[in-house]
Amino acid sequence: MRLRRLVARGFRNLADLDRELPPGGVALLGANAQGKTNLLEAVYYPVLFRSLRGAPDQEVARFEGPGFTVEAEVEAGPTATVAASYAAAGRRKRISVDGEEPARLADAVGAWLAVSFLPDDVALATGNAAVRRAYLDRLLALADRRYLRALSHYRAALAQRNSALRQGRSEVASAFDAPLAQAGAEIVAARERWTGEAAERFTAEFECLGEGAGTRLHYRCGEGLGQAESWRPALAEAMARDLARGMTSVGPHRDDLVLELGGKPLREFGSNGQQRAAAVALKLIELASLRAARGTEPALLLDDVFAAFDRDRQARLARRLLAGPERQVFLTAPRADELPPGLDLPVWRVENGRVIA
Amino acid sequence: MSAIEALITELARLPGIGRKTAQRLTFHLLQQPPEQAGRLASALVAVSERVRPCEQCGNLTEEQPCAICRDPRRDPALLCVVEDASAVAVVDRSTDFRGRYHVLGGRLSPLDGIGPESLRLDPLVARVRGGEVREVILATNPSMEGEVTATYIQQLLAGLNVRVTRLARGLPMGGDLEYVDGVTLAHALVARQEVS
């Protein structure tokens, strides 16, 4: 899948932009705070219709501006044009796919596919479980629309159930057990299935990045929660504790994608290099999983990720990340000499929010 | 506050009406003959004074009990449970249903502070205990909260010697499969029926 044309208006500090994009992608060069990452953010916005940095829409809109529009013309996917616009007045977001507004946001998610890799993504290895759950949710939602649907049902049921628990109403909380169990079991089953398939690959990618052997990836969750029938006894058993805490303690919102090295948690016992390699490995698996699930190559967005590696590791990483003739790559770096060796991409300079090809 | 400002403020409180629309409606009324505004005002006063929930079913009515509860041709053995009074009109207009109704006055939603005590559940149990009702049809909305409310009621009525049914979910009539949303299609597939 390739981005053929990008339109961005009122987006962060970027000057209004309407550009054709090279089929292989582009390297964005420029000093800090010129808008390189903002451009990557604009490219990614129509994937999930939210900021890849997790910023609220009002922050994505140009400061004191009326709002923003992003339009992605996509080639080789099932759709041609994915657009989103956000009006600061009334904080309303409109989304369209080929000019038509979908009934649900979920119906538009994944029409344009990309995987982003930011410096902060090392938190996949060093951060808490919430970071890895967000990784799983994003990946699986883009791989399969049913997952996204289950996730939004689950969150809605969880919010209602927790609210009833905070009110001390166990019988009302239990009334939400059925939708919670149904959506929750779907989520756990999908995450377990994915981890089962990704575990071997994780070990291989990690080794391939030259940081040694002995890593392990597994999914930690409540016993049997991949099946809806197991939920009722688990929720009933936790009820007294949940009432006291005012929150549901059982379910995929508490699970973790555990990364281990020699049987010990990587986040505590891994070196910086090993943690970075683990994050890279997860990103490579994200690419591969989306390609397998959707039958098309997602674009790859790399924000200044090479600077953190030495020359030798850069070359190895570049070989892994930039491989594949089908892959469109967007990457940023402050200067040309910080680009990985052997990279053959057209260069665009970004200065003060403007793109100079 | 001026009279104009007061009216705009009141209109803007209504659902689906923002401040701009409220202004437009206000200036429209001011351009009409005074009798028209008078008719609107007395209609508003009349509904707020005369319309009350039916003591039996909770439907909105000017007389107690409401016309549906009074109608002797209606089958008292069939009771259709809906969330709001507006649903009574919808079901009654578009279907052959000729039983009676029970309006809950909402659906379970702890986030909105709506628990079982906020719904007309005790009167429902009382009606079923009365013995005349043989089937309770749960016609709450097919939203998550509507489903949860239906399940809650089903458990409430368990052991009361009454048949409890739920509206079927599936494909809309006269539609095109291509335009049916995924959730509905998935439900329709699960609830598929033998062609006879």
What characteristics describe this protein?
A: alpha/beta, five-stranded antiparallel sheet, 14 strands, B: 196 residues, Helicase, Ruva Protein, domain 3, Dna Topoisomerase Vi A Subunit, Chain: A, domain 2, 2 domains, two-stranded antiparallel ribbon, globular
Can you give a write-up of this model?
The complex is a heterodimer of chains A (357) and B (196). Chain A is 42% helix and 21% strand. Chain A has 357 residues and is α/β, with parallel strands linked by helices. In chain A, the strands form 3 sheets. Chain A has a 6-stranded mixed β-sheet, sandwiched between helices. A 5-stranded antiparallel β-sheet of chain A has the order 2-1-4-5-6. In chain A, a hairpin with a 5-residue loop joins strand 4 and strand 5. The longest helix of chain A has 32 residues, at 177-208. With 196 residues, chain B is α/β, with parallel strands linked by helices. The relative contact order of chain B is 0.08. Chain B is globular. The termini of chain B are far apart. A 4-stranded parallel β-sheet of chain B has the order 4-3-5-6. The A-B interface holds A 103-104, 107, 145-146, 149, 153, 156-157, 159-161, 163-164, 167, 169, 171-173, 175-176, 178-179 and B 108-111, 115-116, 144-145, 147-149, 151-152, 181-183, 186.
Short description:
The complex is a heterodimer of chains A (357) and B (196). Chain A is α/β, with parallel strands linked by helices and 357 residues long.
